[in-house]
Structure formats: C-alpha cells, structure tokens
Amino acid sequence: MKFLSFVLILAVSLPLMAMGCSSEGGGAGAGISRILGQAFAPETDDAGETKEVPLAGATVVLLEYDENGELTGATVGTTDAQGNFVVEDVQEQAVVVVQVAGMTSDGDANVEGLFNPDQPTIVKDLDPATSVACIAGVSAVGDGSITVEQLDETRVQNLEDASRAYIAANPEFDFYDSAQVNAAVAAVRAATDDGAHPAAADAFT
Asked: Each residue of 114-135: pLDDT tens digit?
C-alpha cells in the first residue's frame, strides 16, 4: 500500500493532527465567504486502472495565515458521501488553504487548494492538480519568493493551470509518491515563476 507524504504540512511545519490549497465566485461582495466544492483523489481499481474518486467522510481543515505570516489550521467539518465540503464564515483575506484528508484503497489521501476569499460564495473542487498548485504557492511564500498578498487569484490560476498541464504531460505521475509530487511542484514553480505568468505551452514536454 502506498501512502502520500503530506508535503504541505511539512512545508509549513504544522503538526499533522492539527491540519485539516483561482476560484469561481458568486458575485461581488466583501467580509465573509462561503467555500464549497468536492474533493477527489486517485484510486486504483481491480483492473489496475487509476481514476479519481470522491473522498467521503474525510476531514476538512481551513488554514489561514496569521499576522506573522505563518499558517494555522483548524478542523471545520467532514465531507459527505460524495466528497462535498462546505467551509462557512471565512473572513476576507489574501488567501487561505482548504485541505481534505481522507483515504482511498491506495492509502492516505490529502488534497488541498488555494482560495482567495473576497466573494460571498467560492466554488472549486480539490484534486491532485489543485494540491500541487497549493504546495507550490505555499512553498513560494514559505521561502520568501513571494508574499502572501502576491498569492492572488491570477497567480493561483496560473499555478493550477500549470499543474494540470504537468500531470497531463506525465501520465505516470503518482500522487502518492512524495518525490514525484516534489518534482511536480518544482517544475510548476519554475515554469510559472511562482505563478507570475502562465506556463509556456511546451513547458513540460
């Protein structure tokens, strides 16, 4: 059985038990956001085929940057049978991380995503691509390459688009292999200059 090494937790030096990474909004607004979506992780079926399945009954954690630029997390609920999650009453701020920690038949599965809570309702599903993008963004903030404020919606979208392109260009990518996840994060960061611009069309070929 393979287990995913949770790179994001290690990157921000938070205990695993305390952890729970562009967004489509529901209109203009400020103050409080409601974040929702579905969480998906890869799973290998009996025929040896890998497909993404909903993470049911998984722990949902909201992580926010504090005044010292450190991520702090709190459990805010669990997913339903279809992997749906809802995070209520998120204060307006530059960026937050939503993590969903569950299991598939392949082992522990943690998917996460970056959200910019500046609208009343924000909808985005979480999967390996949003997870790679999230780790890339958090890592860039953590090593001082960018600030929390620079991790805006455009930069998040560039990171997510590049992560999807990387995974598509590497069909053998194993989300449960921490070395492969680290390689994907490094490639995405390099191809986008930490999300400053979209990756070139041939960045991962």
From this structure: 999 999 999 999 999 999 999 9
Amino acid at the residue 37: G
Q: What is the 3-state secondary structure (H, E, C) of the chain?
A: CCCCCCHHHHHHCCCHHHCCCCCEECCCCCCEEEEEEEEEEEEECCCCCEEEEECCCCEEEEEEECCCCCEEEEEEEECCCCCEEEEEEEECCCCEEEEEEEEECCEEEEEEEEECCCCCEEECCECHHHHHHHHHHHHHHHCCCCCCCCCCHHHHHHHHHHHHHHHHHCCCCCCCCHHHHHHHHHHHHHHHCCCCCCCCCCCCC
Q: Calculate the average pLDDT of the chain.
A: 88
Please report the domains of the chain, with CATH numbers, ordered by start residue. Answer: 8-192 (2.60.40.1120)
pTM higher than 0.85 for the full model?
A: yes
Position 25 scores a pLDDT of 46
